[in-house]
Amino acid sequence: MSALLKEINEYTSKLEKASLWHGSEKSLAEVELEKAKKFGEDYIYEFYCYLRILSDLQHKYHLRFVPGSGVFTFKFPKAPAAKKGKPYFIALDQSTGKIAFQICAATEIGTNYKRSPAPDISFQKPDASDTPTFKDVLMIFDAKFIRSTSDKDKIGLAQFYYVSGMVRDLQIADPSTCGIEFNELATCLGNCILTNGDAHCQEHDYVKSHSLKAVEHFDVGKTFKVIG
Amino acid sequence: MNHLVFNATYLTVNNTSTSNRFSGSVEIKSELDSLPIDIGDQYHFLEQKKKTYLFSHTGVIEKVTDPSILPYTDSELRKNEENAAKKLPPVKQTYLHRIGLAETRPLTDNNLLADLAYSLKLVYRYIKPHKHFESQFRKLPRPDFETINKGMLYVARTGFGKLINSIPRENRLEFTLLAMKEWNTIDFRKVPYLEGLDFLQAYISQNFLQKGRILVGIKELLSERLSQVGGLQVQQVGFTDSDGKEDNVYTQATYFEELFAQDDNFDIIAKIKAGVVSNEEDEARFQKLFKSITWPIDVSI
Known about the structure:
The structure holds two protein chains of two kinds.
Chain A: H1 2-18, H2 35-38, H3 43-57, E1 61-66, E2 75-77, E3 88-93, E4 99-105, E5 121-124, E6 137-144, H4 157-169, E7 192-195, H5 204-209, E8 213-216, E9 225-227
Parallel strand pairs in A: 6-7, 7-8
Antiparallel strand pairs in A: 1-3, 3-4, 4-5, 5-6, 8-9
Chain B: E1 3-7, E2 12-14, E3 25-30, E4 42-49, E5 52-64, E6 68-69, H1 74-85, E7 95-106, H2 113-116, E8 137-139, H3 142-150, H4 155-164, H5 169-183, H6 193-225, E9 238-240, E10 246-248, H7 249-262, H8 268-278, H9 280-289
Parallel strand pairs in B: 1-4
Antiparallel strand pairs in B: 1-8, 2-3, 3-7, 4-5, 5-7, 6-7, 9-10
Helix pairs in contact in B: 4-6, 6-7
């Protein structure tokens, strides 16, 4: 039994360390008894999607990091926030060196109404200010994390409508004409719902009719598939 | 016959042998003139070595002498003067009990309190089990005494308990709520540990290991793909929120890498189950003993 006990002790002391954020001492899986959890909001997954997109953009652009201020110099907010003082990235045209666009994480974007949607990832015009409006937005990606190990789990219709509603609120023109170039993610050019699980449906025309693409199995070590 | 634990930190041992510091006698100070300790009672010594608590020796009590009254200390005398001025009674006198030890022998196998905690009926502070022993001596239920004596382990309960108590407290509470829904009861005594282990495996996988893999994925993107991005210090990248505390992705991902290096597929669950099977006889004994005691989920603050 002593070998097993040693293994249990080693494993649990590592799990104890890993399951609690080292700085804030908050749980990595904060318990929220609200809708948020069900709706697949997860800043860790959203950040993974953000970085994976940035990695892909590097093939066609030079990237530059724009630091935030104070504690936000290299740290990103966990929840939607104003753009001012938060870090983001800019993509520069490789031949001209000019700013092609900005890539922001969970930035609140103004509309004509009392509503500021904050897509997880927004591609903004090169001259977008610290208080961007819908006129600055070229394309959005929203990430939906499915907390399950089962392949049967897929994102819900409400999540699909939510992203569709954001695209509508932001009045985004057809992103395929905005000139952004991906490499491995070329098929993802458009307003996307990214998920580690299954897409809401497999019906290409339906997803397209919402001016969206659904990207499923967008996860570490998996091959993603685009619907729409 | 009583079964006792002497806490070596709180009492004085007058050892008569240089090779065995728990030979001779122990001195217990008490306001009581009589203690529930008799000749023939059996004891274990609990010792603290740095942050580890262990049952180091066991033996039998061979002599209990009449207690002597200790003279008042200086501070007690001062207190008595104060009390007299206020017309209060003097402080109680302290009795010194001398207990003669015999047949002392060391305990060596599976004798750490942290490991035995889930196999002892009296323990319910699983994360800090020493809290149950913060006195010069205490009585032990007879089965607990035997468990320590033989270094026996309730593998199913230990595996389950150590895992659940290694995740953050809020998640222990959430797990309990989910388990209540799963088995439609607040009473988990009748739910077998092996079923509880499966449920716990799913909870930890979905809430922590899955995110850990994504964190490791983020670290790889940062170090392998984005480290050359102008202005970016990849090791500094992370999250913060309104309270201003900062979490580095790099550091946290390293913790998960260490976890996955030991066990990439959460095989520890299968190993615990195999351990239960090979420990059949003791598991059956413990199942009976713990029939009326619920899952060892520590939610104390």
